[in-house]
Structures are given as structure tokens and as C-alpha cells.
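Colleagues,

For the teaching module next term, I've prepared a clean inverse folding example: a structure given as C-alpha cells, and then the sequence designed for it. I'd like students to try predicting residues themselves before seeing the answer, so please don't circulate the second half yet.
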């Protein structure tokens, strides 16, 4: 790394310790000029440009020996120990990588780096932090990938799907990072139905016990009648009673009445949500999808979720679970509101929740631990009170972490070549499957496939032997996940029982999963209104994060309604209109890019309602044995 001056112009929040990127440097130093495109004008190093006649990393000098600093702004990302994949990367590029992560996911470490003028060579932060990404680019903290590739890695364009590059481009047609875990339309097999991104899980033994109880409540036709949230009388197949909001509350009450406690097999909460942060809670997004709350109007216009009547009703239903007590205990534990990621994970790992709405892949190891302890969780779904089928976002998308080369990087010409290497099929195979000849080989079929070596399979099958030194999937920061899924071995797959279990956690819910890419729009940071938008969005998201917990913990529905209405009024004062205006424009532009006019899956031509109340866990036939 090299020292560099901080740029003025960001929010001064960093000086006060906020996680938001600073708009004005604390030391008062000047920022680079802003060009006509609204982005910082950068000066690029004068290294010799790289031809395009062979892979760019093949032009790295054989005697290259350097170590780069790579900061991943996610506390739970596991820093890999030295392994064969990292050694192979070093062998092929001459680059060693030193990874660091924060202790907490509050943005403080990144803000401190910026304030101190000590950025690493590479920064990876979640793509959901759109404001952070835009600010880093707009204010000159990171290089645009296009210019770096044009100068020093032209073959990157051959290795990175075009739609991925285009997706993250701002109004100047430049992209300032490369994501990981993306799903390019180029790679998804035709007709493939992907898993959902979120999911609901329920402890199987308690679910089975409830279902046995529910069957006794059914009439001679196998139906259960119940009072709906709107006061009407409805009926549903007994198997699916738990999939209604009313039936889930009945099941949650029953579970807490019969199994509450701290002993083995007992539970401390009926519904475990993800951790609450100052930006909200991921569980609310998953529940909104289960409740089929549309993100656009019937005529295709963008809808802001928080102010929708259906979303408010969803919050009131959660408030009911938070305030309803059984033997003195609320159905959603009050501890949930202060739990960290590890705290939520501990509840899951101990089998202490009847059901969960936490993102399954984020807690897959905890679910595996629970299974090993005798408390297996299985998928389930829930609908809104009207009985609309869930409309879940499938796992496709344009990335989880955005990887950016900072303007503090001394050799961006070499680091962009590393990015090219990791994005290529060669690099993807290395990251996914390890070193060729050591952990895998090509088969001798007419269409060769990847097959793991006997030595690797033997090591995988030996519980007393660790396979960590092979390094598979440890350097996933530019991973094309669909490439991995397309190429992974289907026979002799090497997966342990626990790995198959984790991979299948939410697969039965795939019947309710759809393409949500229209909602992953990128607001143009080059727009003249962007800075006002960015400021307003920061305040709005913080307000929603603060107020949501108050709404859920209100002592009554009337109090929850009052807090909600006050929150909407405060949002309007924080320039919600501007946020909706730019979101709407970006949303329409994204639909045009996708070539669609209707994005809400249930309103698209040819939609077939997949709801089957007799299968409350989803379609269990979708489990893979691999």
C-alpha cells in the first residue's frame, strides 16, 4: 500500500464514529476533482499496458513476489489459513494475499481506514451497501474496473460475464468492482429453478408433534376451520394449517406451552429472527416475500415496501407474536432484539427455536450442529392471511460481496491481473475444486467432467483427517457460483452427510422461488440528485432500523399502529419522495435492461399458482443426493 490524501466531500459522520462513509475528510484535505460524469477524476499509474494475445496474468514477471492486503468487511467471513489454493495462486501470479476482517459489522473499521488514509489494496463489502459502494467510487477511493482492464487485463472481458459487468455500471458506463456469488444469465441452465435466497425452518420433531395434534383438530373432510385475521371464518387442509399466519400462531403457542424451558429438547422462542441492526432485519424481507407483498403496482410502477399497507399488516402480525405470552413468555423472545449473529446462531445450534426466519445459508453450520445434537430443522413456508402463494426471491443475483481495487494500491496493474486469473475458468476451478491432479482430474468421457481424486475422497471420508489444507472454497471472493454448481461432480461428489444436509436446507422451497433481479437496481451515482438521495437514504434506513424494533415490541396493536404512522410521517420529512423518485427511475431502467415490463412473478403471463397446503415443507422431492 502507499499513503494517499483523503478526499473531502463525504458526510462528516465518520469523524463522529458513524459507519457511514465520510463526506468530508476529518483532516480537511482536498478531494480530487469531479468530472462531468459526476465521478472523481483519477490519475492512473504509468505502467506498461498489457496486450490481449494471451491471458493477462501470463504477463506477470516470473520473478514477481508481492503481498497484497485484502480487507473483507464482513466479520463472519472465515479468513483462510495457508493452503494449496493460496499457494497455487502465488505460484501462478507471484501474489500472496493477506486477508483481514472486522470484529463487528458496524462499518467502523472501514471508516477508520478511510479517515486514517490507510486503505488496503482490495476492499470487499456487501453489495447490499449500495451507498458505501457508490461513495467509494464517486469520491475516488477505488478504481473503475473498465480502465484497469483496458490497460492491464484486457482478457478479463473474456472471463467475466458481460451482464455482470453491465449490471453494476453507473451512468458513466463504468463498473467499480467485481462481485462474487453472482448468477449470470449466461450460466444458468435453461429451465433451472433455483433455490430461494431466504427461508423458513422448523424443528422437525416439534413440527411432527404439532402436525399429529393438528390432525385431531380436523373435521371429517380433513379441514380445519379458524378465525382469520380479518374476522372471517376460513378453512384449510389440516396439513397446511401451520402455513397460515393464524395457524402458525396456534402452533407457536402450543410449542411454547409444551416445550418451553432451558433443558435438553426444550425451546426458548417460538420464532427466531435474524439479528437486529441499525439498518433493520433480514427476516422482515424474507417474511414479506412469504406474504407475497408485491414490489410493483399492477401497472408496473415501483412500490416502496415499508409504506405499503400489506407491509404494515405484516409488522402488526409480528408485533402480535412479540406481545402474546404463553406461561409468561412471549412467542418471539425479547432476547432476539439484542442478540448478535453469534447469539442467534447459538439459539439455532442448540435447537432452542421452534421455527426460524434467519437466512439459512448464513447459519448453515449452526443448523448442522443442531442436527448432530438431535434437533434437525426442515424447511417450511407460510402465506399471508389471504392465502396467496409465497413469492420468494431465488438465489440468483449479481453478487454478495463487491471486490474493489483501491487507489492506495501500489500495483493495480498486477492486482487486476489477479482478478482476471480468479475470474477465469482456470481460476474458478482452482477456487472451487482445488489444485488439478491433487484433488481432481478430468474424466475420459466424450464430454470430460470434473472428478475428485481417490486421495481427496479418502481424506474427505476420514473423520480424523482434515481437508482444510487443500483450500477448496476458501478463496471465494470472485466466485461465480453458478459455474461451480454446473461443474461440480454429481457422482463421487465427496460431500459428507452434513454438507449434503446444508446444501438441501431450503431446496424444497424452490417451487416458490422466482427471479427478483428487477429489485436489485443500481441507482446512478453520476446523477446530480444522487448526493441528496444518498443523504436521505442514510437517514431513512437508520430511522426504519430504529423504529421497526419499537413497532414489534409495542405492547398492543394500537400502539404499534401509532408508532408506524409516526414513522411514515418522519420518513416523508426525511425526503422519502426523492428516494422513491430515484428508486423508481432505476427500477424502470433495470426492467428495460432485463427486457420485461412486468416483474412481479405472480402477475407475469403464464404464472401458475404452485401452492399446495398438503406439503407444508415445500416439495421434498427436490432434495439432492448429489
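(Answer key — instructors only)
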Amino acid at each position: 500500500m502507499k499513503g494517499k490524501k483523503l478526499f473531502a466531500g463525504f458526510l462528516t459522520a465518520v469523524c463522529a464514529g458513524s459507519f457511514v462513509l465520510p463526506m468530508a475528510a476529518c483532516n480537511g484535505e482536498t478531494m480530487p476533482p469531479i468530472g462531468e460524469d459526476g465521478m472523481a477524476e483519477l490519475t492512473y499509474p504509468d505502467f506498461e499496458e498489457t496486450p490481449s494475445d494471451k491471458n493477462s496474468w501470463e504477463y506477470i514477471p516470473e520473478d514477481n513476489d508481492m503481498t497484497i492486503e485484502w480487507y473483507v468487511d464482513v466479520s463472519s467471513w472465515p479468513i483462510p489459513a495457508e493452503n494449496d489454493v493460496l499457494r497455487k495462486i502465488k505460484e501462478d501470479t507471484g501474489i500472496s494475499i493477506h486477508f483481514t476482517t472486522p470484529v463487528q459489522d458496524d462499518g467502523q473499521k472501514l471508516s477508520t481506514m478511510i479517515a486514517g488514509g490507510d486503505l488496503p489494496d482490495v476492499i470487499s463489502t456487501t453489495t447490499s451497501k449500495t451507498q458505501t459502494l457508490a461513495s467509494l467510487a464517486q469520491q475516488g477511493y477505488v478504481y473503475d474496473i473498465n480502465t484497469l482492464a483496458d490497460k492491464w487485463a484486457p482478457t478479463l472481458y473474456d472471463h467475466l460475464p458481460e451482464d455482470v459487468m453491465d449490471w453494476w455500471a453507473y451512468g458513466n458506463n463504468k463498473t467499480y468492482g467485481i462481485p462474487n456469488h453472482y448468477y449470470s444469465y449466461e450460466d444458468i441452465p435453461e429451465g433451472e429453478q433455483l433455490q430461494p435466497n431466504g427461508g423458513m425452518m422448523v424443528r422437525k420433531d416439534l413440527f411432527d408433534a404439532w402436525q399429529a395434534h393438528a390432525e385431531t383438530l380436523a373435521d371429517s373432510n380433513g379441514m380445519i376451520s379458524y378465525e382469520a385475521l380479518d374476522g372471517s371464518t376460513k378453512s384449510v387442509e389440516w396439513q397446511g394449517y401451520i402455513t397460515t399466519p393464524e395457524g402458525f400462531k396456534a402452533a407457536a403457542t402450543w410449542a411454547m406451552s409444551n416445550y418451553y424451558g432451558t433443558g435438553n429438547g426444550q425451546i426458548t422462542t417460538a420464532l427466531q429472527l435474524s439479528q437486529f441492526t441499525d439498518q433493520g432485519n433480514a427476516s422482515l424481507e424474507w417474511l414479506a416475500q412469504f406474504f407475497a407483498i408485491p414490489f410493483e403496482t399492477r401497472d408496473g410502477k415501483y412500490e416502496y415496501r415499508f409504506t405499503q399497507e400489506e407491509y404494515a399488516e405484516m409488522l402488526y402480525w409480528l408485533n402480535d407474536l412479540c406481545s402474546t405470552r404463553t406461561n409468561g413468555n412471549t412467542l418471539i423472545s425479547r432476547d432476539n432484539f439484542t442478540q448478535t449473529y453469534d447469539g442467534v446462531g447459538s439459539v439455532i445450534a442448540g435447537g432452542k427455536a421452534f421455527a426460524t426466519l434467519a437466512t439459512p445459508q448464513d447459519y448453515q453450520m449452526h443448523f448442522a450442529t443442531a442436527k448432530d445434537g438431535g434437533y434437525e430443522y426442515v424447511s417450511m413456508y407460510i402465506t399471508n392471511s389471504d392465502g396467496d402463494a409465497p413469492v420468494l426471491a431465488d438465489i440468483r443475483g449479481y453478487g454478495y460481496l463487491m471486490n474493489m481495487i483501491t487507489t492506495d494500491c501500489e500495483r493495480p496493474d498486477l492486482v487486476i491481473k489477479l482478478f482476471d486469473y480468479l475470474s477465469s475458468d482456470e481460476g474458478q476451478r482452482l477456487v472451487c475444486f482445488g489444485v488439478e491432479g491433487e484433488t481432481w482430474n478430468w474424466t475420459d468421457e466424450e464430454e470430460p467432467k470434473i472428478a475428485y481424486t481417490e486421495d481427496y475422497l479418502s481424506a474427505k471420508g476420514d473423520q480424523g483427517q482434515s481437508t482444510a489444507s487443500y483450500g477448496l472454497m476458501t478463496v471465494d471472493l470472485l466466485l461465480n457460483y453458478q459455474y461451480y454448481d454446473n461443474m461440480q461432480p454429481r457422482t463421487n461428489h465427496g460431500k459428507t452427510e452434513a454438507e449434503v444436509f446444508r446444501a438441501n436446507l431450503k431446496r424444497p422451497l424452490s417451487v416458490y422461488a422466482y427471479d427478483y433481479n428487477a429489485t436489485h437496481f443500481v441507482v446512478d451515482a453520476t446523477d446530480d440528485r444522487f448526493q441528496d438521495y444518498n443523504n436521505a437514504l442514510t437517514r431513512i434506513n437508520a430511522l426504519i432500523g430504529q423504529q421497526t424494533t419499537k413497532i414489534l415490541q409495542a405492547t398492543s396493536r394500537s400502539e404499534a399502529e401509532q408508532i408506524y404512522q409516526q414513522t411514515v410521517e418522519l420518513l416523508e420529512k426525511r425526503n422519502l419522495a426523492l428516494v422513491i423518485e430515484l428508486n423508481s427511475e432505476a427500477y424502470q431502467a433495470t426492467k428495460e435492461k432485463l427486457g420485461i415490463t412486468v416483474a412481479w412473478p405472480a402477475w407475469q403471463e403464464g404464472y401458475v399458482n404452485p401452492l399446495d397446503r398438503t406439503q407444508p415443507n415445500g416439495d421434498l422431492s427436490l432434495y439432492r443426493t448429489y
